[in-house]
């Protein structure tokens, strides 16, 4: 027990080396891919709901002022390596170029609780290029508010290792976590997918939505997350737009 406790939070390997970004011509408008922050945001049951209150309100007061209290892993957000690695960078230490750039949106037609494995990734198009952001469209965001949302797909450890080997910059999911759904976890569960990805600086965005129009296309992304000092994650306003693809296969 003592040896395991001593090792917990260690294992940050450093940022993957990524190629320079090549700009592509946009072919459509920016699309908002994030949940609006309110008190009904998707979240894990262990976390409290956000609290939004008015400290000042017109016409009683000369101005309006809103107070927000929320766990940073609520709604559309990005995980920093610090989420699982205390020796890794916190959110304010993430280079800004790790939160924006080109990538792909893959449409995966999956059953509830399906495991996304290497063959799914190798068959998906457009192909993932080194340095790409990958957004998964499974349709599960549309199931939020129903019991089906919690029966989301998840990645195998082999799939996470494939993403690292192919130098994916950031993985964005339209469900709560790339790891197993909460109700399928056995005692001693250790979030293996998060560990594989975040150890090498592959950031993780959870609770994406609204990207159906980009499925099967290349896109440009912006993950406008808050630079919270020392934080293990941050809520994000995520935007994307389609771009021209000279090599669609």
What about the largest sheet?
7 strands, mixed, barrel
Question: Strand tally, please?
Answer: 12
Strand order of the largest sheet: 4-10-9-7-5-11-12
Terminal CA distance reads 50 Å
Question: Using only CA atoms, what is the Rg?
Answer: 18 Å
Structural shape: globular
How many H/I helical runs? 4
The average pLDDT score comes to: 95
Helical amount among residues, as a percent range?
10-25%
- Fraction in beta strands: 15-25%
Main structural class: alpha/beta
Runs in which pLDDT lies below 50 for 5 or more consecutive residues are: 1-6
Order of helices and strands: HEEEEEEHEEHEHEEE
Question: How would you describe what is shown here?
Answer:
By secondary structure, this protein is α/β, with parallel strands linked by helices. The protein has helices at residues 2-7, 118-123, 157-165, 192-199, and strands at residues 31-32, 51-56, 65-69, 77-79, 100-107, 115-116, 133-137, 154-155, 170-172, 203-206, 217-225, 233-242. It has a seven-stranded mixed β-barrel. Helix 3 packs parallel to helix 4. The radius of gyration is 18 Å and the shape is globular. The model is unreliable at 1-6 (pLDDT under 50).
